[in-house]
Design a protein that fits this description.
Largest interface: A-B, 36 and 26 residues
Radius of gyration of chain B: 30 Å
Largest sheet of chain B: 5 strands, parallel
Strand content of chain A: 5-15%
Shape of chain B: globular
CATH class of the largest domain in chain A: Alpha Beta
Number of helices of chain A: 10
Number of helices of chain B: 17
Distance between the termini of chain B: 31 Å
Oligomer: heterodimer
Helix content of chain B: 25-40%
CATH architecture of the largest domain in chain A: 3-Layer(aba) Sandwich
Strand order of the largest sheet of chain A: 2-1-3-5-9-10
Helix content of chain A: 25-40%
Number of strands of chain B: 34
Strand order of the largest sheet of chain B: 10-7-6-18-29
CATH superfamily of the largest domain in chain A: NADH:ubiquinone oxidoreductase-like, 20kDa subunit
Order of helices and strands of chain A: EHHEHEEHEHHEEEEHEHHH
Chain lengths: ~325, ~675
């Protein structure tokens, strides 16, 4: 009997997730043992036509990292979806948009204008801009069309499982791959489709710091504090920490080294919009009685949109009208 | 979406709704909404026939959910919940859509818009109601003790009614004596009985009553808990007097060398000493030392009162005391502040010596007042030969308060009568309208007309001492358009009395916040219903009486005091209250104990369980306000009857016509 087939793909993302796959260390050998890797362009020389040549549903598991930023990302998402039995949104970008989706605070036109014309470092005397198509004597050249809105994978194709994190912790990758291998071999069951592979509660549950009733008088950036109390909740010390609203599973790595949680594991189970939760949660503990005091405290938090929605803009309720209902984790757009 | 059998009932409310909403069309349209089994319209859903319609459908059609689209839930939610309950349906499986206040009344001229909005609201309720869960009310026992805040006539009446019925009362008064504004008055309209003569027996009853704990010179500092089970902390300010030793003999204030203007009781017209009892009939009889003005507290020397006190009752080291009581119900009777006429510069109060406020005038004509009842000018000797009384000062005036202060007409008439009676001069009443609507008031007005008082209709534009014509020298000239003859008049007088209106207490908003009730735009406390529930508030267990609810005279204040007492007594008599099951719960398995909610709860209902590292809601304390639900960053707090599921379903329902519209925007 042939081994189950595994595909890995990298869409709009930094590439850290590819490294994270290798961070399973020797487990990778078991992966190679258990799976037949049919597509992993970052590591092995495969072409798209190799995937196209496969029968529909022939790939058993596809770990898809990266957001959907342009036509090519979407094309690959649709192609791999068609060829795969189990589609996994691997990492924060494909799960909920991550850093690329921060671009959803602005528009494609504004970005093009800024990047190619207005930014201080732009040197573009001929006012070039990337064009989706261009005629040359040899024929027509094309570039993938750059989208106005960055979408998560589940906003483009149906997704079976989510593995959040920027990047995902190796143990959860191992959990998923092991479970999938066992299930495919008929020796176990996978969680219900639409599940997030990880814990259900928040980072605070894994964080050893002591917590008290909170009142925040101002926010600090880490360098602004001479000393950080290693045992006290960071939020109480004025360091922004998204741990209160972020799914646990990372082991509270950042808070344990005096760095507030960034929120890369996304919202905990049952929450739709982590940014909205963070905004109402953090706003609740501001130590202010008047609008002026509120504004003064918020002025100490640079880039609040970036703090609250660093990883989740694609899934935010602040979504563009063209995204449709964002939270159809097992939606039928496939 | 769960499958349920929903009954929808659209109320005409006579013409109130049907006048602007096509109710038949809404009822017909609602038949097409998901889960709707029955959809009807009816003239008056709140009538017994309307309610029976619901009951019959529940029994015969097997309805599992009910939606009534009618008025505000404040009005009839309880009515329809009870109807459902009678038919065996849990009352919380009922949902109300307000298509009167929210549709017909706000769009009376646009049937299409009002009808569309009614559809949206009905759709919201239908979508939501299938997610409603059955809930059960919780019965809790009621503490029999009642807290009455404010020792004016309304508070005194309330306290006595409850105490006479045999239940304990704690009466808290900010000033050193109870009595309130009524204790400052000389005569009361329209009967002209002596204010003190009818008030002081009641004050004495309060002092003597075995069921009343009287705390004067005290303020409520903290209120925790909920109806039937409040815990109230009261700050008993240090009188610097050992009450047990004091006999109220008065030696101390006779000997006290420090005189200060009495801004409270004498309205700035007279003096008191630094150790003082506000007035002879004060209850309790003990004086207080005003540490702000007492020479000893300012310089460290004096102690004359201590030297002369025959019983050694002076205690300079006495400190404020915090006392906590378990309280079942609260009656707020915190009264009013007089409008400060300095805010109307053209009337010259504070600048022109012989312009007086109404309370100053009350003190002046009071036999125990600073002038021993002599009606004199500011110099203390000259008897005025002519007096102008200006109505509506600070009331019915867009610049200050739009409302009518309700009592000024009558007390202005009373003043006119007193002037006629005591000094017999000319009296001019400057009025806009004479409002004498209660029993015996109009008769009093007619009596005044016969006494030869002049009535000039028009708002006074200026009061000045600058003479322009012969006969004006040395007089105050009141200028006004007499709108009955259509001419400007300048009337020279010796004395002007400004009939200043009533305003909410300067700290009414803070007091309201302390007890969890709200103030209206005018600043007075808001009653639960202006007509049908005037002494209750939206917070269970908190009642209001007297002028803190809105301007009113003594009979109305007394009636409200008694009314509030009756409401409280019915709760105490029953012995228990049913608490709304709408409250928050924390999913402890997923609570990570971040403690963000802990500081949020306005009712201190959230405890942090140190061992388990989770927060927990005390269901008896929770009022279901939803603050913690919104604050919880991990969304593990659920507000019963207002779950995320229910709210989003309702929003989806309201947006039924736009939710699934395709939107054209480039990807």
């Amino acid at each position: 009997m042939s081994k189950p087939k595994l595909a890995l793909y990298w869409a709009s993302s930094c590439g850290g997730c590819e490294i994270a796959v290798l961070a399973v260390h020797e487990e990778i050998l078991n992966v190679a043992e258990a799976f037949d890797i049919v597509f992993w362009p970052c590591v092995m020389d495969f072409k798209v036509k190799d995937v196209e040549a496969l029968a529909d549903g022939e790939i058993d598991v596809c770990l898809f990292n990266g957001a959907i930023r342009n036509d090519e990302n979407a094309h690959m998402a649709h192609l791999l979806r068609r060829k795969s039995k189990i589609m996994v949104a691997y990492g924060s970008c494909s799960s909920e948009g991550c850093i690329p989706a921060l671009a959803n605070f602005t528009s494609r036109d504004h970005m093009m204008q800024y990047i190619y014309h207005d930014s201080p470092s732009a040197d573009n005397p001929y006012n070039f801009e990337p064009m989706p198509t261009w005629e040359v004597p040899e024929g027509e050249l094309t570039l993938p069309k750059f989208w106005n809105t960055v979408k998560s994978l589940d906003q483009v194709v149906k997704v079976e499982y989510y593995l959040p994190g920027c990047p995902p912790e190796a143990k959860w990758t191992a959990t998923l791959v092991t479970a999938a291998a066992a299930a495919l071999a008929g020796k176990g069951e996978l969680p219900p489709p639409g599940s997030v592979i990880g814990n259900t509660d928040t980072v605070c549950d894994e964080c050893p710091r002591e917590r008290n009733q909170k009142k925040i008088k101002r926010f600090y950036r880490p360098y602004e504090l001479k000393e950080v109390d290693p045992n006290l909740c960071l939020l109480e010390q004025g360091l922004f920490c998204a741990g209160v609203a972020t799914r646990s599973g990372c082991g509270a790595l950042c808070p344990q080294v005096n760095m507030g949680c960034r929120g890369c594991y996304g919202p905990n189970e049952g929450v739709d919009d982590i940014g909205a939760r963070l905004i109402s949660g953090i706003a609740s503990v501001l130590d202010a009685d008047t609008d002026e005091e509120v504004n003064a405290i918020l002025d100490t938090l640079p880039d609040p949109a970036g703090y609250f929605y660093r990883f989740s803009m694609s899934h935010s309720m602040l979504h563009r009208t063209d995204i449709g209902h964002t939270l159809q984790r097992s939606g039928d757009q496939g | 979406m769960p499958e349920e059998k929903v009954g929808v009932y659209i109320c005409h409310c006579g013409h109130n709704i049907a006048g602007a909403v096509d109710v038949e069309a809404v009822a017909e349209w609602a038949k097409g909404l998901p889960n709707v089994t029955v959809s009807r319209d009816y003239k008056f859903m709140c009538s017994s026939l309307g309610q029976e319609l619901i009951e019959e459908d529940i029994k015969e059609q097997g309805l599992t959910r009910v939606v009534v689209a009618s008025c505000s839930p404040h009005m009839h939610e309880r009515t329809f919940r009870t109807a459902c309950e009678r038919a065996g349906l849990n009352p919380y499986l009922f949902e109300m859509a307000n298509i009167r206040e929210h549709a017909s009344w706000v769009h009376p001229d646009n049937v299409q818009a009002a009808t569309d909005k009614a559809k949206a609201l009905v759709s919201g309720a239908v979508h939501r109601v299938v997610y409603n869960k059955p809930l059960d009310a919780m019965e809790v026992p009621v503490e029999p003790t009642t807290l009455v805040v404010g020792g004016g006539i309304a508070g005194i009446q309330a306290a006595l009614e409850i105490a006479d019925a045999g239940y304990p009362v704690v009466l808290v008064e900010r000033e050193p004596s109870i009595g309130g504004h009524m204790a400052q008055l000389d005569k009361t309209f329209p009967t002209l009985d002596c204010s003190a003569c009818i008030l002081t027996p009641k004050m004495f009853d309060v002092a003597m009553h075995p069921n009343i704990t009287l705390l004067t010179y005290s303020e409520v500092e903290k209120v925790e808990g909920y109806v039937g089970n409040f815990e109230v902390t009261i700050r008993k300010k240090a009188r610097k007097i050992n009450e047990a030793d004091c006999t109220g003999c008065g030696t101390c204030w006779e000997k006290c060398p420090k005189k200060v203007v009495d801004e409270v009781y004498e309205s700035g017209l007279g003096y008191r000493t630094a150790i003082y009892r506000p007035f002879p009939q004060a209850v309790p009889k003990y004086p207080v030392i005003d540490v702000e003005t007492c020479t000893y507290y300012q310089t460290g020397k004096c102690r004359v009162c201590e030297k002369f006190c025959p019983t050694g009752a002076i205690n300079f080291d006495q400190e404020d005391e915090l006392i906590t009581y378990k309280i079942g119900n609260v009656i707020l009777a915190t009264g009013y502040d007089q409008f400060d006429p300095r805010r109307i510069p053209e009337y010259g109060y504070g600048r022109l010596a012989n312009v007086f406020t109404s309370l100053e005038f009350e003190r002046m004509v009071n036999a125990s007042g600073p002038t021993d009842g002599q009606m004199v000018l500011r110099d203390g000797v000259t008897v005025p030969k002519s007096v102008a009384i200006v109505h509506c000062v600070g009331s019915r005036d867009r610049r200050y308060n739009q409302y009518c202060s309700a009592v000024c007409c009558m007390y202005s008439l009373k003043f006119a009568h007193l002037v006629k009676e005591r000094v017999g001069g000319e009296v001019y009443n400057f009025y806009m309208d004479i409002r004498t609507s209660a029993k015996g008031y109009e008769e009093f007005y007619h009596r005044l007309l016969e006494e030869g008082v002049h009535f000039v209709r028009g708002r006074v534009s200026k009061i000045t001492g600058a003479a322009r014509q012969p006969g004006e020298e040395g007089k105050l000239i009141v200028q006004c358009e007499d709108t009955l003859i259509g001419k400007q008049r300048r009337i020279p007088v010796d004395m002007v009395v400004l009939s200043a209106g009533m305003e909410p207490r300067h700290d009414a908003a803070e007091v309201g916040h302390l007890f969890g009730i709200s103030c209206s735009v005018d600043g007075f406390f808001i009653e639960r219903h202006p007509k049908l529930d005037p002494v209750a508030t939206m917070t269970d267990g908190i009642y209001i009486a007297g002028v803190c609810q809105g301007p009113k005279d003594i009979p109305a204040s007394v009636a409200q005091g008694a009314g509030a007492a009756a409401r409280v007594l019915s709760v105490i008599g029953k012995g228990s209250v049913r608490l709304e099951p709408v409250r928050a719960t924390i999913d402890e398995a997923n609570c990570s104990g971040c403690r963000i909610c802990n500081t949020m709860c306005p009712y201190s209902a959230i405890d942090y369980i140190e061992d388990l590292k989770v927060s927990r809601v005390n269901p008896a304390l929770c009022k279901g306000c939803g603050t913690c639900v919104a604050a919880c960053p991990s969304q593990v707090i659920t507000g019963a009857h207002f779950t995320y599921e229910q709210i989003t379903a309702q929003i989806d329902g309201v947006l039924f016509d736009v939710l699934h519209q395709p939107v054209a925007e480039p990807v």
